[in-house]
């Protein structure tokens, strides 16, 4: 039998993320024995072992890794269905646009102004998030549309409208010798003694190997750069949030980054289509012209 219940998936995700039955049970608000029974029953029904259990703790098997990924997507889809259904009943609701805090600030201002100037668009509510969270907000229905970046963000399953393409800069502590250079290469900023590149979490929440500090928020990153503990390479427009203690230097051979408007491929709402048209029009205008047209 291949049918799975959302309750089973929630139980499994909790155990897989905590890697501890006691903590997972506490997180779910249930006792540990029924949680353990539910996971064993799930393994029997699927005919696979999802978890390795020994005295040292709990670990995911290969099959468990697959189910964790699929279960997260399934639970997001269920939550999204409920949120979108409720939102569809409110014809006066604004579009919710999610974007990374501090990223594409000028472009966001231009997009909001261009949208407000059109007669066929809905009001836009801005939801700020941390790095890499836009895809999750789109998939679970908390947002209708997002500003995202190709090739660094997860765009699987989304329709997109390209808005602009730009180079990248190295964000450095102002007192570092590299900060005095007019330009840098990726080789210049790789393996800098005492100044490792910061590490962002992958889609599964794990961090890549390396000496750089693990960061999750822009504020963490900003302070670590100012303290001379890390550097990073970011789209040039992200300099909007840099501190006086930072210096941004162009990295001439870094891959270009394209900012896109992204939304779930099955969303055909007229208000969303109108916002996408406003984004497409911005692509054909330089920033000054776009600001003038939006007035």
From TrEMBL:
Xref: SUPFAM superfamilies: Periplasmic binding protein-like II, Winged helix' DNA-binding domain
GO CC terms: protein-DNA complex
Keyword field contains Metal-binding: no
UniProt key word DNA-binding: yes
InterPro entries xref list: LysR_HTH_N (IPR000847), LysR_subst-bd (IPR005119), WH-like_DNA-bd_sf (IPR036388), WH_DNA-bd_sf (IPR036390)
Keywords from the named record: Activator, DNA-binding, Transcription, Transcription regulation
Molecular functions (GO terms): DNA binding; DNA-binding transcription factor activity
Domain HTH lysR-type: 4-61
Family note: Belongs to the LysR transcriptional regulatory family.
Descriptive protein name: LysR family transcriptional regulator
Organism of origin: Nocardia coubleae
